[in-house]
Design goal:
Largest interface: A-B, 53 and 53 residues
Pfam families (chain B): 2Fe-2S_thioredx, Complex1_51K, NADH_4Fe-4S, SLBB
Oligomer: heterodimer
Radius of gyration of chain B: 24 Å
Radius of gyration of chain A: 20 Å
Number of strands of chain B: 13
Protein name (chain B): NAD(P)H-dependent oxidoreductase subunit E
Shape of chain B: globular
Order of helices and strands of chain A: EEHEEEHHEHEEHEHEEEH
Largest sheet of chain B: 5 strands, mixed
Largest sheet of chain A: 5 strands, mixed
Helix content of chain B: 40-55%
Cofactor (chain B): [2Fe-2S] cluster
Keywords (chain B): 2Fe-2S, 4Fe-4S, Iron, Iron-sulfur, Metal-binding
Organism (chain B): Streptomyces koelreuteriae
């Protein structure tokens, strides 16, 4: 059972969401309110365990009186606000942003994107066959995880998870500028020469599969990765006494990757190198 | 924070460059030899992290001395400041003037932006590259606007060393550019700032009255020409009184956004959180804009005085002057002016004996247009990547170092001096009812007398161009720079006011007026604008990062096409442009499409 901290009581704000009056606790974002009201607003860079970065701009909505659209994931709801989530203007921006993303990176392993592309009638091909994209080989420089920049949408979630929001290792950052900006470790070195401690918390938050377990990467390459055949079992990590929750993803009786439930009030989905990657002894049956 | 440093070591020269800025290290924790005490205590922590804002000056120190930033030098700087190397690498690679790859000690920046391109920058660049081939010890770089548009085409040479040497040549020829790069010390002196002011010395000027009249190095001369009377008046009025005067004057920001200055000051002054900061935005990087440079070079004490007044009114005791890295002469003059003002009690613990403490620190930018965005500028000063923050919260509430901050552009601040000396009613009587006071315009391109002009708001575009001597065959005028918009040659009766340009469907922006005659190939110009924004996008948000690239691609496709052949790509440009305007985080992405759109709609660029 997960214990949810209650926190201090919060006042309810009243505002209008797509013409309907809604109430949301003070401090909630527009996205929180949308979700509470059962509205689906697409998001990519928003992370349930991280502060909103609002870099991807697919969650933009229209707020009465605002000159531009506003990101639902980070804008706090205010009393009396009039928010419209599904106007032509908001839908246009979402469509273009999805087209821009899908034309520049590989979204094939990004959950939900295929449905959004269809819903917004996005046509990433219309920028032509010469549209700039990365076309970089995945970086495989260690046995634990793989960086595939072709899939990176620069959502900053890995940077935030590695930095002051969770891990405090500060091994990765964004380097360069504009279209040439890349997630990188210091001096753009191989991971093995960097400050990385292989906690894998960046993989946990990566929304596109740009960061993945070496095991998953290899199985995908071999064509043996089949999520429909996998089971997920949440258990307690046996390495130390902290009691972190592990979710074991098992295919054909082999652990293929380890994640951690984000609603755990102690770890919020974060693990250390042992919990995340130290599972080979479990399946060493000799 | 558990920091990891690699094995790379700085050279003695690199270490010396950093130590000259930060002082020698005291413990092995920050790069000195190990002492007995080091075995018992860990140095750093909060005290060291609080110096993170020295990261950008530290990167400048290394780049100035060596010409580029090696792994060892970056790691040493990180050790000294307790900054994670990955983050510092992200910062170093953000700025155009830094290199993390080895390069020759001299970098010659050749401006290829709008005014210089029209004045033959491509041929100049090719000529320079032919003369300075491989092995010449000079890196030739194509640069965005150097802010020398009145003397186009322009080059800036920076030769690393101790001290770093710079030379500007404008208008440049191949010979003069090569001389500036090979021997910056013996390159001819730049012409005085007053040469950029065709009206210099004329009666009735308010903002430019002292440019060319006073000696920019002499505080006494400044005072002899009315300097520091405005600050005295400010002390008589008290902070609330100053804010009242500024509010009543109707002054709005001159950096492009036209926000009421008095309201901004009031909002900052009333914040209970302390300390308050003042930031002067001197990161003038809008292509076609050079007025702040001329003010700072020609009348530097005016800016120091105006900053002191702004800080006094808003309760700030520390001011940061964020100066773009491409303005070496403005840097030297302001450094001198601030030192003189400090020595004479006009800055420091007790300004003018009034018991009010205020001092100014100059921070140099390093080649990033985006750092002119107010929140990106805060990040840059704080030692982070110059990426804009999302608003709200606004700077008046949470600005520099998370504290209430008032940020004003140079021209805005300098306007405060006449407001206080002549009084708000007299100032407000100048111009029109909704655009009060005098305004500076940067006129360049196809005109006989390019330069900075001061006119009261309300003069028409035609009147300004007559003053500057527009040449025959005027085809288009770009208002407001690359983020502004084009107007036609038959629209010269547009009044130069905020409301007048808005009614005409364009913008005054930062006051750029760039004239183009029919010899300038319009599609090339538009392509250059698109290139500029693609280069300068910080890359944080998708609409701007990818949108600017897709727009540039479309413009490349239609550069030689028109009519039906271009229609599909123009639709694409419009759709992408609309999303960039609506969904980008900051003004850069929101305005990147303006100029090209106006060229299509008003000039019929691809018909």
């Amino acid at each position: 059972m997960t214990v949810t901290p209650l926190g201090i009581p919060r006042r309810l704000l009243e505002f209008t969401l797509d013409g309907e009056p809604v109430r949301a606790p003070e401090g909630s974002t527009i996205l929180d309110a949308c979700r509470a009201a059962g509205k689906d607003v697409p998001t990519l860079c928003e992370g349930d365990t991280l502060r909103p970065k609002n870099a991807c701009r697919v969650c933009v909505v229209e707020v009465e009186g605002a000159r531009t659209l506003v990101p639902a994931c980070s804008r706090k709801a205010e009393a009396g606000m009039e928010v419209r989530t599904d106007t032509e203007r908001a839908r246009h921006s979402r469509k273009i942003v999805l087209e821009l993303l899908a034309s520049s990176v590989d979204l094939s392993t990004t959950p939900k994107v295929a449905a959004w592309l269809k819903e917004y009638e996005a046509k990433p091909d219309r920028f032509g066959p010469d549209a700039a994209r990365l076309n970089e080989e995945p970086k495989v420089d260690n046995d634990l995880y793989v960086r595939d920049y072709d899939k990176c949408i620069l959502c900053y979630k890995c940077v935030d998870a590695c930095g002051d929001q969770w891990q405090n290792t500060f091994a990765i950052s964004v380097a360069g500028r504009g279209f040439d900006a890349r997630i990188a470790v210091e001096h753009d070195a191989p991971l093995t020469d960097s400050a990385c401690v292989y906690c894998g918390n960046c993989i946990e938050v990566c929304p596109t599969g740009a960061l993945s377990f070496k095991s998953e990467f290899d199985m995908r390459a071999a064509g043996t990765w089949e999520e429909s055949r996998q089971t997920e079992t949440t258990t307690v990590c046996a390495y130390c006494g902290v009691g972190c929750n592990l979710t074991l993803h098992v295919q054909d009786n082999e652990i293929v990757k380890v994640t951690s439930p984000h609603d755990n009030p102690v770890t919020h989905g974060n693990l250390c190198i042992k919990g995340r990657f130290g599972y080979q002894h479990v399946q060493n049956r000799d | 924070m558990d920091l990891h440093f690699g094995d790379s070591k700085p050279t003695d020269e690199e270490r010396a460059a950093v130590d000259a800025l930060l002082g020698p290290p005291e413990s092995s924790w920050e790069g000195a030899d190990r002492s007995d005490a080091d075995l018992r205590w860990a140095r750093g922590g909060r005290e060291a992290r609080d110096r993170r804002d020295l990261l950008l000056p530290g990167l400048h120190a290394i780049n100035d001395r060596i010409g580029w930033i090696s792994d060892g030098a970056l790691d040493y700087l990180c050790r000294r400041l307790t900054v994670p190397p990955a983050e510092a690498y992200g910062v170093a690679t953000f700025y155009a003037m830094f290199s993390v790859k080895p390069r020759p000690a001299t970098v010659l920046q050749v401006c290829t932006d709008l005014a210089c391109a029209a004045a033959g920058a491509p041929e100049l660049c090719a000529g320079i590259e032919a003369r300075l081939g491989l092995g010449s010890g000079v890196t030739v770089e194509r640069s965005p606007c150097l802010g020398l548009c009145e003397r186009a085409p322009a080059v800036l040479a920076v030769k690393a060393g101790d001290p770093v040497r710079t030379a500007v040549s404008a208008p440049a020829t191949v010979e003069r550019a090569v001389l500036a790069a090979s021997a910056p010390d013996s390159a001819p002196e730049e012409p005085p700032a007053a040469l950029a002011v065709p009206q210099a010395g004329q009666d009735g000027l308010m903002l430019l009255q002292r440019v060319g009249v006073v000696d920019p190095a002499s505080l006494d001369d400044y005072r002899a020409h009315g300097g520091y009377t405005a600050l005295r008046r400010a002390f008589e009025l008290g902070p609330a009184g100053v804010i009242r005067e500024v509010t009543d004057s109707g002054l709005v920001g001159r950096g492009g956004a036209a926000f009421p200055t008095g309201r901004k000051w009031q909002a900052t002054a009333s914040q209970p959180d302390r300390p308050h900061y003042l930031v002067c935005n001197a990161d003038e990087s809008e292509p076609g804009t050079f007025k702040d440079r001329v003010l700072m070079e020609g009348d530097p004490y005016a800016l120091v005085e105006a900053m002191t007044i702004a800080a006094y009114a808003t309760g700030a005791h520390r001011g940061y002057l964020y100066l773009r890295g491409e303005y070496p002469r403005a840097l030297r003059r302001l450094e001198h002016a601030i030192a003189q003002a400090r020595a004479r009690g006009l800055l420091g613990d007790d300004v003018l004996g009034q018991g009010y403490a205020f001092d100014i620190e100059i921070r140099r930018g390093a080649g990033a247009y985006i750092c002119g965005e107010e929140t990106a500028l805060f990040n840059s000063i704080e030692g982070y990547r110059g990426e804009p923050r999302s608003k709200p919260p606004f700077p008046v509430e949470k600005g520099l170092f998370g504290k209430p901050t008032v940020e004003n552009n140079v021209e805005t601040l300098v306007n405060v001096l006449p407001i206080l000396t002549m009084g708000a009613p007299a100032y407000a009587a100048i111009g029109t009812q909704r655009s009060t006071g005098p305004k500076l315009f940067c006129v360049s391109g196809s005109v006989e007398r390019p330069g900075v002009y001061e006119l009261p708001f309300g003069a028409t575009l035609g009147e300004l161009l007559t003053l500057a001597g527009a040449s025959e065959g005027l085809r288009a005028v770009l208002l407001g720079g690359a983020a502004g918009g084009f107007v036609r040659a038959d629209e010269l009766d547009i009044p130069l006011t905020f409301e007048g340009t808005r009614e005409a469907g364009t913008t005054l922006g930062s006051g750029v007026v760039m004239a183009f005659d029919d010899s300038v190939p319009l599609p090339r110009l538009l392509l250059r604008i698109a290139e500029f924004f693609r280069d300068e996008s910080c890359g944080q948000c998708v609409p701007c990062r990818v949108g600017t690239v897709r727009q540039e691609e479309a413009l490349h496709r239609i550069v030689e096409r028109a009519g039906a052949d271009a229609a599909g790509d123009i639709t694409l440009l419009r759709e992408v442009g609309r999303a960039m305007r609506d969904a980008s985080i900051c003004g850069l992405g929101q305005t990147a499409w303006n100029a090209v759109e106006s060229a299509i709609d008003r000039l019929g660029a691809y018909e």
